[in-house]
Design goal:
The chain is mainly β. It has no helices and 18 strands. It has a five-stranded antiparallel beta sheet with strand order 8-7-6-1-10, with no helix packed on it. The chain has a five-stranded antiparallel beta sheet with strand order 5-4-3-2-9, with no helix packed on it. The chain is elongated. It starts with 6 loop residues before the first strand and ends with a strand.
Length: 232
C-alpha cells in the first residue's frame, strides 16, 4: 500500500529522548526524520539502509512528556520535503531532494533513550495543506513547488529541453479551494529546430521528438561538430 503525503503523527516524549520516523520504499529508499529536544532535529535521505543528513534545525523542547504533540511530514514529486508542527503553515525544517522519492510504502517509528508513546489517525487536522501532490505533466521538468500546498499556491512546469509553450516559457497550475489544481489546457510542444536556419546543419536537418540531428548526402561525412559535412 502506498503511503501518501502528508504523514501525520502525535508523540509524547520526554525532552531527553529522540523521536525517529522513517518512510521507505520497498527498496529501502526514502526519508528519515529525527525530532530531538536536547540538540537539533534533522531530515535524512535513506538509500539502501544508509542515511545521509541534509537538513538540520535547532529545536529545543520540541517534544514533551506531559502532552502529545502533533507533527506532519510532507514530500512531493518535485523533491520538496518538509516537517512541521500542527497548525503551522510552513515547515520548521525542509530540504529539496534532487532525486525525489514518492512511492513510499513503509512507515517506521521508534523512540531512543527513553520510552515514548505514538498516536496515528487518518485525519489531517492541523495540517495546513489544501491540495494533494500536483500532477506531473508530459515534456516538463515540473512540478516545481514546495509542500504543503496552500490555497492559491502556484506550481510551475518548465518545459524540458527541446520543447516550448506557445503562450510563454512556463506552465502554471494553482491550488484551489476544493483541493484540485487549475488546468490551463496548455502543453509543452516539440521545437522544430530545423525550421530555423536549418538547425545550423550544413546539409540535411531532421527534426526528432525533443531534439534534431544533422546528416550528410552521399559522398560526405558528418564532422565532429555534428553539424558540418566534409567530402570523403
Amino acid at each position: 500500500m502506498v503511503i501518501t503525503s502528508p504523514f501525520i503523527f502525535e508523540v509524547k516524549l520526554n525532552t531527553t529522548g529522540i523521536c525517529v520516523i522513517q518512510l521507505d520504499t520497498v527498496d529501502h529508499d526514502g526519508y528519515r526524520v529525527i525530532l530531538r529536544s536536547s540538540w537539533q532535529s534533522d531530515i535524512g535521505r535513506v538509500a539502501h539502509y544508509h542515511v545521509t543528513v541534509f537538513a538540520t534545525q535547532h529545536t529545543p523542547d520540541i517534544t514533551s512528556a506531559a502532552e502529545f504533540r502533533r507533527f506532519w511530514i510532507c514530500w512531493s514529486k518535485g523533491g520538496s520535503v518538509g516537517v512541521g508542527r500542527s497548525g503551522d503553515d510552513e515547515p520548521f525544517m525542509s530540504w529539496t531532494d534532487p532525486q525525489p522519492v514518492t512511492d513510499i510504502t513503509l512507515a517506521g517509528y521508534k523512540t531512543m533513550y527513553v520510552l515514548g508513546v505514538f498516536r496515528f489517525n487518518c485525519t489531517q487536522d492541523g495540517f495546513p495543506g489544501v491540495c494533494v501532490d500536483p500532477p506531473t505533466q508530459a515534456n516538463t521538468t515540473g512540478p516545481v513547488c514546495n509542500c504543503p500546498y496552500l490555497l492559491g499556491e502556484n506550481c510551475t512546469y518548465p518545459c524540458s529541453p527541446g520543447y516550448y509553450v506557445i503562450s510563454g516559457d512556463v506552465i502554471v497550475r494553482t491550488c484551489t479551494a476544493d483541493g484540485s489544481w487549475t488546468d490551463m489546457g496548455i502543453f509543452c510542444q516539440d521545437i522544430d529546430e530545423c525550421s530555423t536556419i536549418n538547425g545550423n546543419c550544413s546539409q540535411t536537418c531532421t527534426n526528432t521528438v525533443g531534439s534534431y540531428n544533422c546528416s550528410c548526402s552521399e559522398g560526405f561525412v558528418l564532422d565532429e561538430d555534428k553539424h558540418s559535412c566534409s567530402s570523403t
